[in-house]
Amino acid sequence: MAGNSFGDAFRITTFGESHGEAVGVIIDGVTPGVELDEPYIQIQMDRRKPGQSSVTSPRKEYDRIRILSGVYEGKTTGTPLSILLHNTDMRPEAYSDIQHSFRPGHADYTYLMKYGIRDHRGSGRASGRETAGRVAAGAVARKLLENRGISIIAYTKAIGGIECKTFVEGEIERNAVRACDPEAALQMIERIESLANAGNSCGGIVECRIRGVMPGLGEPVFDKLDADLAKSMLSIGAIKGIEFGAGFAAADMLGSEHNDEMNADGFLSNHSGGIIGGISTGNEIIFRVVVKPTSSISIPQHTVNENGKEQLIVTEGRHDPCICPRIVPVIEAMACLVLEDHYKRQGAMLY
Amino acid sequence: MAGNSFGDAFRITTFGESHGEAVGVIIDGVTPGVELDEPYIQIQMDRRKPGQSSVTSPRKEYDRIRILSGVYEGKTTGTPLSILLHNTDMRPEAYSDIQHSFRPGHADYTYLMKYGIRDHRGSGRASGRETAGRVAAGAVARKLLENRGISIIAYTKAIGGIECKTFVEGEIERNAVRACDPEAALQMIERIESLANAGNSCGGIVECRIRGVMPGLGEPVFDKLDADLAKSMLSIGAIKGIEFGAGFAAADMLGSEHNDEMNADGFLSNHSGGIIGGISTGNEIIFRVVVKPTSSISIPQHTVNENGKEQLIVTEGRHDPCICPRIVPVIEAMACLVLEDHYKRQGAMLY
Amino acid sequence: MAGNSFGDAFRITTFGESHGEAVGVIIDGVTPGVELDEPYIQIQMDRRKPGQSSVTSPRKEYDRIRILSGVYEGKTTGTPLSILLHNTDMRPEAYSDIQHSFRPGHADYTYLMKYGIRDHRGSGRASGRETAGRVAAGAVARKLLENRGISIIAYTKAIGGIECKTFVEGEIERNAVRACDPEAALQMIERIESLANAGNSCGGIVECRIRGVMPGLGEPVFDKLDADLAKSMLSIGAIKGIEFGAGFAAADMLGSEHNDEMNADGFLSNHSGGIIGGISTGNEIIFRVVVKPTSSISIPQHTVNENGKEQLIVTEGRHDPCICPRIVPVIEAMACLVLEDHYKRQGAMLY
Amino acid sequence: MAGNSFGDAFRITTFGESHGEAVGVIIDGVTPGVELDEPYIQIQMDRRKPGQSSVTSPRKEYDRIRILSGVYEGKTTGTPLSILLHNTDMRPEAYSDIQHSFRPGHADYTYLMKYGIRDHRGSGRASGRETAGRVAAGAVARKLLENRGISIIAYTKAIGGIECKTFVEGEIERNAVRACDPEAALQMIERIESLANAGNSCGGIVECRIRGVMPGLGEPVFDKLDADLAKSMLSIGAIKGIEFGAGFAAADMLGSEHNDEMNADGFLSNHSGGIIGGISTGNEIIFRVVVKPTSSISIPQHTVNENGKEQLIVTEGRHDPCICPRIVPVIEAMACLVLEDHYKRQGAMLY
């Protein structure tokens, strides 16, 4: 009801505020008897953490996870797997000047309207910090999906108006923006650095590809596989849209163009993005999301405070001028959670 | 788990196959004591039904709803409100030739892969017919939302490459394609008729605006208001993408452009589409979805049958060459369901 | 939220009022490809229907079920299986005299307090009529459980102070009270008839045995198998208590007596009732429930009307002087629903 | 699905094993703006902790709770409230001898059958230690219920064959067994000490009374207030039965005796236990549960090990010879959770 859980048969609940004592996640429904250790999860955490490169926030948040339960002698037990991350390098005083003002683009105003109270420090629960728990849980799901032969990758497709022209999978994790085109990556980095110097920020597009999913995955009516993926992606703060396969381009296509014809070897195209009627076709699942420009900028902007008094505000702090590089592992994590949940739901149906 | 329910505090469950005996919906969580009758719901059903105009399917499906429970002496009782629509004008024999083949763009193949069995008649459960129950339930939600002072409208923004240039709200329900620009509407109708004659189909874009929502609605983490709207829209068969506010254009915007600044009167822009951090701002909620071209076309296409034998297929039947006009009330219905559910969830939190 | 659904992976939703147009049930999560027809379900309906014998209500409610969806050519499809029962032999006028009064033991007062409105005809939704949908859904679950080798039987253990001394399984369905002791059954029938003549009613105890469940079924913390069975039983209007295995007698036992010891062949006793730590042991699952005396009696009783005016009330109508015989199939149905749900949940975990 | 969460609008998830690093609970759906601090919760924890008296386990488990999130400057924020308890005084080596054997009455065998793997240390997740999280969450619910004017008390009614003859509320927390009759309490303590010396254990009965609940609380079909209370109680490991109001005695009562008549001042009796048709009457809610004898005894018992080899086992360790005194706060906690959840659900319906 209050919406801090996600999934059904494989279900996570996150908790914790950005500048509170800790953030974390509980995973309920983990397959028992699977080998799992902290370093495996830590790999994904390190892809999300700040301070990775010149284009990410310089905060030195130490994202060291700790498994508190659900793993015994190196194997999952089937009981709730809980993961905790203590918060460090918190500087709540950085927020004291603006604690009664509404930062443009942030959820300060909406939280206060909803709850009548808010923890202003570093956006509290609305902070990107909340996604740390998601990434940890996603790593557990990824482990289970690997055992099913499934791979999930996301990467930057465009940043600040610069688009990737090629798709070189091996280059993605080698550049600071996680772009699939190494040349475009260089331009993107330059663009971000220039904007950061100007105290501004920019948005971008991230694409995700999922391979190895059997045909027949997904619940066909409300819990369509694409519907659940869409929800999972829009549940990430900075994401404002999603499209599958041909996506918005389908608006200008004819039925004879968009339909994926088949022959004895399978589908002849993949305009559907690997999902038809909410169920996987067995083709690669492919979707794109739009990432809005980071809201925290150091250019003065018009706003009001809690008393309605108008003022100019500058969002100080150590922020990412473009969130694409660090949102990539969050997108992969959410995709992993959706897939593992649907596999388990399929298991329930067939049992 | 099996995904035929939607919502939490205001929850619907749909049932029924396209060419079975009936389709329907159960609504659990209706506010008691609200005046409601069948004609109010029928208005929305009539906007969705086939045979409305030259650009919709000529089927004469008689979408007459019947309330079976949950209303007593003209008022809701708080008990499950069930609505039934008997299927009529079924011609299952129209499907007998292709019952063992996979129609391109349809869910024939994916259903068989999932269930190992399928009701081939008129797509069974994957048919647009399933949305009749949604529209009926959406009308009940709309009634409750009207009492809250909320209005929800959707309309065609583009069809087959033709875009609306103006937004004239009063014209929407006056043209056969439900476009917000009467001149564009004429071109759209012409385009659809020409494609229909050629046995082809086209896609489009539908926009939705929701007004009157208080600031502070939505659960801020996984069940963000935009996340739930995204899920609800992608759960409609023909929809392949969604974007809020500035949407995909945000990829090319700067933080200084995208952030919605405030003054004492409220927000100075609405690039966020009325939702920040998953919670309503009080501004108009605005989003767009892409509608894929209708899969059923009478141009021969390559496919295989259940034995893997290659063949050419022509999808006969009485289909809509463009589904936009009839999907408009479905989109409104799903938006109503999401909103009423979130209002009730807010009620739970505050009680 | 509003509580008209039960189960998780195998989930039912009931709808309909006693004297409305129809009652029914939607089942979501049915295994596809299972042979199922209406007569199989009807068998269970006929065990629940009124007018079976001299000790049940003489109403001639025609409990003929109709499958509206989810079955195609004699097999389940995996889509929602919906079952409808039209109400017949309704005599709402029988209730017009007392429509503004609160019948003692009935939910008239509590419904009005909750909803501020009520459908007074024959208890509306609080009627035992609502359980017709449960029995229909339970029959579907029973079919799936039979395929797993599981049997579920319930029977009267005591009525009006008369207890069964023997357990003769083959006699249960041969006597009008469904007692496991044919001699006690004769006394029970006599007792009920005598009370009925006096316009009074009585309670009893029903026992349920489930055989063939594998060891290892049940979720060990909140959704313990016994916890879910307890909820399912207490969700039946007339049931006011439940006990497993040794039950309340365990209060006077020592640990050395109550513990079920084991040898190489299995457990040496079954004081636990076949469930330890919320998970099945593989032994017979056995529990008892207490059934309160039927609330509707024709002896004048003190009550008030909606305006608080005191009055004497006589609950006319055609009622069962003891509900045990007809509650037996409802108890079996609820047990079937819990078991099938937990089997599917086990399937999700293991997949 | 995997069953480690409880509640709907006010929902908790517990995690952690008895001898793992920590146990804890996440609460989702807390009303924002409510004053709450750790000492308030600690009071309830201290009522549950071991080592309180001569009749409880001498373990020195330090049940110091820590709120990690959801409270800011002494008030709840509406975000997930997470509470952690680090495990201390763990002596897993005490379990090493019996790690491959099945202790009679314990869930060792059933866990292994379910998961194929188990954390044998101190029963792992099946330990009473898991209830620490429930008690912490229950304290938060109790705070909200106090603001609604509701009180919840539970107490020992019988232990080892000794029954309370009087009900002196003020004496309950003054004796080591939390009995409502101080004289019976003395006998109970003597009985427990004598059994403890003999290495044996005993069971008992606990009663719970809830006052101040408005009439009209509860969802009337599956989620009846008594059904949810029954589930919550049977979800506690040692509890094997529950009865409301007249309970099992109703089997021998007539309708004319059991029905609660009304006059202008309200109900004339409370055989229903304060709940009719699943909805509160406004009367005191009263129910009793049976607590089985503690399974851990130091008298040798027959069992087998994981290889099926027969053996005698003695369950060493520091155990409670009767769990009644320490289960009282757990019962109160679960009742609090059910009530607060139903209040919030009522809030959703009415909003």
* E-strand count of chain A: 18
Work out the count of structural domains of chain A: 1
Task: Give the helices and strands of chain A as they follow along the chain.
Answer: EEEHEEEEHHEEHEHEHEEEEEEEH
Find the CATH topology of chain A: Chorismate synthase, AroC fold
> At the fourth CATH level, what is the homologous superfamily of chain A?
Chorismate synthase AroC
What spatial order of strands do you see in the largest sheet of chain A? 1-2-3-7-4
Low-pLDDT stretches of chain A are none
Number of helices of chain A: 7
The average pLDDT value of chain A, as a whole number, equals: 94
Biggest β-sheet strands, sense, barrel of chain A:
5 strands, antiparallel
Q: Can you tell me the CATH architecture of chain A?
A: 4-Layer Sandwich
Q: Rg of chain A to the nearest angstrom?
A: 21 Å
What distance separates the N and C termini of chain A? Answer: 29 Å
Structure summary:
Chain A has 351 residues and is of the alpha+beta class. The first copy, chain A, has one domain: 4-Layer Sandwich (Chorismate synthase, AroC fold), CATH 3.60.150.10. Helices cover 26% and strands 22% of the residues of chain A.
